[in-house]
Amino acid sequence: MAIISFIAFTFLVAGISYYVTRKTNEETSDGYFLGGRSLSAGVIAGSLLLTNLSTEQIVGLNGSAYENGLSVMVWETLAAIAMVLTAIFLLPRYLKGGLTTIPGFLANRFDLTTKTLTSILFLSGYAVVLLPVILYSGSLAISGMFNVPELLGVSHTKSIWICIWGIGIIGSIYAVFGGLKAVAVSDSINAIGLLIGGLLIPFLGLIMIGDGSLLNGISILTSEHPEKFKSMGGPTDPVPFYTIFTGMMLVQLFYWGTNQQIIQRALGAKNLKEGQKGLLLASFIKILGPVIVVLPGIIAFHLFKGNLETPDSAYPALVKEVLTNEALIGFFAAVIFGAILSSFNSVLNSSVTLFGIDVYKQHLNKNANENTIVKYGKIFGVLLAISSMLIAPQIANAGSLFAYLQEINGIYSIPILTIIVVGYTTKRVPAIAAKIALFSGCLLYILSQFFMQPYFINKALENAKNAGISNQESLNLIEAQAYPHFLDIMAILFLVNVLIMLLIGKLSPRKDNFVQKYTEQVDITPWKYVKFSGIIVCLTVILTYIYFK
Asked: Domains in the chain, please, with CATH?
């Protein structure tokens, strides 16, 4: 029964996606990369949410919540504010310029080399970090939740390989051969399934805690573990509260406002009004995200009494505990599978877009027609998918997947955000400033996090142990205070890079002011309720923090 419901839901999504996209002309760049600039608010919102919400989020954040409680909800709630800022300030500028890729703006604002360097940074991050992490974490979840080794009679390692290649091949078919519209439509359907399935897990978990009563379950959980329901993280938590005002907002703004993988959905909007409505709809739903990606971790902590082998096993263990109906198991497996596919094929589609538009067309074949660009973009996508499937099993020892992903992303996220912000907010900063900021941002972050941080932490722990300190809680505090949090480092480097660019702009400005031109590809009349809706979202986030303070 489980296998039947899994296959039925998976094929339903594929069938609807094919039916809706069958008339889209995918021989052109706009048709293939941006869905013909025809995406509506609902499709944009669904695709944004499911592109973001995959197993590295569901498994990783619930693992953090299992260990540290509600404070990790900041990754979800603060995202809503970043989406509001994107809808009001960034998206109008993107659509005015008729952008297909974010680096496309940099070619006009700075020069072609800056655009190419940024595209290569994006592609490197996607290929080496993001795609393999999505594949591995997804395979870990599928294999663990649904007993794939036992089902197929293979070892755990072989089951991970099988899941990786299964997800990779099916995701590649969507992304490489279906284009953005197929990805976005399948995302929207899977988003509905994920909301239903994702809410079902904590619902069943609370009923189990309350011995059949949801309200009793909530009462027991909050009264027995009050320390888990504090929104403001302490110094040893993964996200101390003060970092909201340093690097956290920058990370969120990069992810939701400048990351090609995410913003490509809004770039495919039929007009600015639909794009803004899609972003704001997604931001409202995002505020509810902790119910799916944080609360189950706390429920697992109660049910398993904190005795699980690793925090990242909390969510898979909870799913196995509360789902007993085979039809529901199959449905939830299909939903999780869809979420994994969504993130994988979204990143892959964005990689194909970046390569086809920013690398192949610009440097390898300047005279290529639209059909040729799409063709070679697809070839690149296939090769990238295969390499990701080969790399994915190698990150089994990466530690906490979510923490690993966030910290590694800082190598390219802050430099790219810096040059985009300075590019839009100034008119005379020259191209050389952007190139220097890209290089300095990457190099300084690598130097800080992979050389200086281990040195200072090891030295502090060594001094503490020599002084006779053996209490683990004290050692954790010493480790946390030995070196600035990686979000603080991001904020510092952002300011340093901005100052470098402004200084160069002052000493050697470009000859004329940059003026952005309106390409008239889509209507950029804003939605009349965009600011009002944005204020409501921001107030809701603030009130949530006050309530759980």
From this structure: 2-22+39-402+522-547 (1.20.1730.10)
